[in-house]
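Troubleshooting: if your tokenizer reports a length mismatch, compare against these two reference records.
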Amino acid sequence: METYISNAATRYGITAKQRLLRIFDAFRWPDVTEGEFVSGTESNLLFLNRYGLVLRTGERLYTPESDLILRPLATVDAGRDCVIDLIPGVRAIAKDWTVAPMLGAVLENEDIDFHDATAQNVGYIPAALPDFPSGVPVVIDRGAVSELNRAFREYNSSRNVPEVQALRQSFNRETLRGIQEKFYAPLRESFESAWPKGGKPDHEGISRFLSLCAAEIKKADAGQPAMLSNCWTRDDFDQGKPPKAAAAAQRYELHLHRAIA
């Protein structure tokens, strides 16, 4: 039976396997068996219910930077064409189909093409701001965006449509500038303290980081403001990926419970 680590070795090489073995040892997690993770075209995804985190192992994506594109909390190089990302869980937009086209129009103004603008590729950073009481909408799949083609930028007439212009103006870019760095600072600082770049992991520090993540999920479950979400536990979607993620995450949650109980 293929596991998360053995699958990564097959798809991305021995370096990916070595990096993952070190990560799983540092976090004291058991390897992930078949059916406990989601395998996609560009990556493998491990959804961690109790922590509100996603571990992505996959192709290196050359994604444009924007406050409206979700960034990992940490990234580990795992070979020339592979990276391992630790990604914060965000709130799902459920079936609000208007958010993805809205983000597409705004990102176009930053010369970014949201070419796969679907609801399942968008979520809310749970940072309630005056202009964004429901949270800040962001692209959660970094493979769904790319630099805007110059010819498209020059000839796309939608840039001048009054409705699109009004939509862009409604986004207060100064309000959003650096929002992810500010909002996720406690999580990043905790992780970097536990595992400095180029250094060795401190197991007690990793435990504190995971405790912080778990505490955020408990706050979210209680309806309190929180930095993390495990929205994929909901299976009331009809978009394919969320139900698959919910089932896989629940299987690994049971596996994790047995391993560390």
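Reference record two:
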Amino acid sequence: MKKSLFLFIIFLLFFGCSDVKPPKENKDSPFRTTVPSQIYFKNMRSLHYTETDTKQEGVKRFEPKSIEKNAIRPKVFPIIYQNWLKDEAYIVFEKLDAPKESLSVELNIGASEESSKFQLGNFKSHFDLAQKIYQNPSNFQLYIYENEEKRKILKESKDALIVLSDYFKLLE
């Protein structure tokens, strides 16, 4: 009796444990975050942000509190989205009065006439724009095209640079 009960338990343990492998992680993703950088952001930097859960599961939106304090709100501002289920973080330049709208922007850096145009529709294009601004933080101007008209929306914003700095630290 004891022997058959022992064999039955071994049988259950052997066949009861599945060999389901966890999904493959995309370690080459430029949006990848690490646990230490997430802890640092959550404990130290998130105090400067208003955190909201989005309708998507596992995605948190961090909007800088400095936007709320300013009497003159910028038209477009970088917002951090953290997908903690995938261990990824995204930077999105959102139009504050219409956040879901796709943007067409132009970036001028320095006194040169060199400009870069971005069609902001996916996370990669937002990331490329953020990286370009972060690498050249002084003397940048960002323009948006609305109704065929070019309008300046962000110029050497210290608050925007702080958000970009926090974002790239989150990716370390």
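Descriptive notes for reference record two:
- Residues 29-170 form one domain.
- The first strand starts at residue 49 and ends at 53.
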